[in-house]
Design goal:
Oligomer: single chain
Number of strands: 0
Distance between the termini: 33 Å
Strand content: under 5%
């Protein structure tokens, strides 16, 4: 601004608005990372669980290994979230909740189908379910990062 008590000129106002828009987009993109990480973690855990369900259903053993591998990944994910507390609070939105609900509906459907239709295991089904869950989680992560 040219004078202390006057309004900015049109050019100065445009410059200030451009600067504010840049700050806003930087803050929004930083807030998207924790939510994207949630969906990447869900994609990994969901895929591991689908393959683990096949192993447990087909062989009758492996449940402890499945539980330990999923727990290890969940601990790693939870530990890294603590580094991003401020942006985590800003990043969770209605879009995140919609994607999360959609992912879990698909996850429950995959588990129910596997348990009811393939009680003794089917490698083709569980690999397909793992790929679909992974793709859904990664797509939700990209959706969060692009918003």
């Amino acid at each position: 601004m040219t004078r202390q008590n006057s309004s900015p000129s049109a050019a100065e106002a445009r410059e200030l608005l451009a600067r504010a828009e840049g700050i806003g987009s930087t803050a929004t993109s930083a807030a998207g990372w924790p939510t994207a990480m949630v969906f990447n973690s869900l994609a990994i855990i969901g895929s591991m669980m689908m393959i683990g369900f096949h192993i447990v259903a087909h062989t009758g053993y492996g449940a402890p290994l499945l539980a330990m591998s999923v727990a290890a990944w969940a601990m790693i994910t939870a530990f890294t979230w603590t580094f991003m507390l401020r942006t985590t609070k800003a990043g969770f939105s209605k879009r995140f909740a919609t994607s999360l609900i959609a992912y879990f509906v698909l996850y429950v459907a995959a588990i129910a189908t596997g348990a009811l239709a393939f009680a003794n295991g089917s490698l083709v089904y569980y690999i397909s379910a793992a790929v679909i869950l992974a793709a859904t989680g990664v797509a939700a992560a990209f959706r969060e990062l692009r918003a």
